[in-house]
Amino acid sequence: MRGEAQPEIEVTKLTEWGPVVYEADGEAYQDLAMRWIAHDKPTKKEFHEIGTFYHLMRAKNMADYFAALEGYDSPAQNFVFASNEGDIAIQVNGIFPIKEDQQGRFVQAGNTSKNAWKGFIPRDQVPKVVNPERGFVASANQHSTSPDYPYYYLGGFDDYRGRYINQELAALDQVGVSDMKALQQNNYSLKAKEALPLFLAAVDSLTLSAEEMAIVKVLKGWDYRYDAEDKAPILFDLWFRESYNLTFDELKKPAEERAILYPEAWRYIALFEDMPDHRFFDQTETETVETAAAIAKMALAKVAETYSSKLQEKDFDWGHKKGTIVGHLGGIKAFDSDMVYSGGTGDAPNAIKPRHGPSWRMIVVLGEKVEAYGVFPGGQSGNPGSPYYDNTIKDWAEGTYYPLFLMEGPDDPSVTPLLTYNLK
Question: What is the SS3 assignment for 223?
Fold first, then answer.
């Protein structure tokens, strides 16, 4: 430690459940301890997480792949496998506690063992798929099991990307590099496809102002793709958000006093379609009883009031509105990228958001000689003063890939020029 300052010792209380991460202030509250698998001893003595990746790099077949995964405990991840022998697989890998229904969603009392986990799901019952008849495996943060899976688990799961990716893969007979590039760059949103027609139908028979008609005209011609140069994605997102907030206005005040779980987007869309007269659509401060159609009209009016005048502005498009920035990992804003003009959204396969996105795109062609292509949003140098600090960001945003060098061994002749260059 620099200077004359003395080291500071941080004391952490350790309980049977785990470390105390919050200490109560006053008698009205209690200490909060956290049970976390990462604090446990590894379940496999021979190797653990780092060893898993070491063994995966040396794996020659599916048996080696599954053997390597046995040492991986946490954090849980999906491991995808493919070989030039024609085998494919995906394993939801890690160790998972056996919980009671809804356990983990709320804080529980720590003074009784009845709230403890009931062991761990046996590894042979953790979800995996091997050589499915459909000919592919896929993962996009969606649910990993069907509703009849016997063990309870919770988390945040994607409702749209996984469905669309599976739908697109199922429609392909022969998949080539160009097909995978197109899928990884696909800006299509199932959420928009399922919600927008309902909104448009709800206001179709209503009297609209000229400003509202201008918004509707743009949205009626939209193909549900969040392309950078499009205006429609901005208008749909605003309309959806305003409708959602107007519908669940009853929750706004309680949410200011305590944490509340709001309904997910898919649940709201289902409510709008199947129960348009539900009491949630009624505005409590008005004398009339609003329906889904009334809410859609009110939300459209709000969007039109602010944004109809912007439709002719040059920079009023999704790429500028989204304003993607590739941030520095250390949070140093001076080292962030400039604004990255790109399409994509969190609900599309090309899940580029304002501050997050696909950090590594890769396509591998298996065969006698492996081909691979990839790109990442950064550069080969970690030095902000280097021309190679951010030189691949533009290509990443535009969907350009680089051929990847796969060294075949220590005597690979293509390595020699690289070594000579480095020595110079």
Answer: coil
CA distance 13 to 112: 18
Query: Is residue 294 included in any domain, yes or no?
Result: yes
**Do 117 and 221 share a domain, yes or no?**
no
Q: Is the predicted pLDDT of residue 6 greater than 90, yes or no?
A: no
Residue 409 belongs to domain spanning: 323-424
User: Residue 199, Cα to own-chain centre: how many angstroms?
Assistant: 26
CA distances from 391 to 331, 375, 379, 382, 383 (A): 20, 11, 5, 11, 12
Place of tokens 């969907």: 399
pLDDT higher than threshold 60 for residue 356: yes
Rounded to whole angstroms, the Cα distance separating 166 from 183 reads 11
The answer to whether the CB of 302 falls within 8 A of the CB of 296 is no
Round the CA-based radius of gyration of the chain to a whole number and report it: 26
- Dump pLDDT digits (tens) for 23-56: 888 766 688 999 999 999 999 999 999 999 999 9
Report the CATH number that the domain containing residue 54 is assigned in CATH.
3.60.20.10
Q: CA 316 to CA 268: how far, in whole Å?
A: 28
CA distance 192 to 160: 10
Report how many domains make up the chain: 3
Residue (of 330, 314, 324) closest to 394 by Cα position: 324
Contact criterion met (CB below 8 Å) for 393 and 378: yes
- Spell out the residues 6+ positions from residue 110 whose beta carbon is closer than 8 angstroms to its own: 15, 17, 33
User: Could you tell me the pTM of the whole model?
Assistant: 0.90
